[in-house]
Model the fold of this input.
Amino acid sequence: MPETPDPESLHMLADSLRTTMSAASGAKLDAALSELGWLDMLDEIPDVAIPLVFRLLGETGAHAPVLNDVVLRAGGRPPGLTTPLPFTAGSWVTWERGDGPTSAIDGELPIHPVREGDPLSPAALAAGRQALGWWLVGASRAMLALARQHALDRVQFGRHIGSFQAIRHRLAETLVAIEGAEATLEAADTEADELASLLAKAAAGQAALTAARHCQQVLGGIGFTAEHQLHRHIKRSLILDGLLGSARELIAEAGVTLRAKGYAPRLAQL
Done:
């Protein structure tokens, strides 16, 4: 079994990935990640590669069709291609490996609506939901960072708005939601635990919606402008939340599952 990289190697890998994602997106980033050994990492150290790559995609605002690779590999199929993915409200989409955007919400993403695809295996759903969860956590942290910096810089009534209790509460509630979502992702089994992965994706989606709502309020009018980065993270989060089940849908699905079981299984050792 491949060894987990030591902290120094992991730090260097994260720096390399962040630099790459800051310079490219879409098909170019897909190619760059392949050159960095993304598919090898996915095979050898998925527990490290998936959280790292997808969290950085969220933090940098870049995008690449690598969700396909995670779902295909977990489903026992070769990565590097595309596969239909369930979307919210019973619809299906494909995330193409080119740069032809069609999404009505996020014009940067090459996501195309398609007819219903083959159901994904439980392992593929679990792995895909965890990957999306880390992406949502990264996007949430990016929104929080923007709002926090604005709170430190913006002055009203002779005071930085970060000193106002209402602002502090919104930032604190956002951080609590993000940390909670990250904890659920760390507790879930990357490979197999369907219910834990479902709940982790739901928590991450809810955290992103919380971050979008609170950070929009902290930023005020500037947060609504196309010139500011916040709107890009909000739109991206809406798409990611809908993929493989939205937070609302997954919470309802979890309720149905627990009622059928008749008990709540232990998902983490505290």
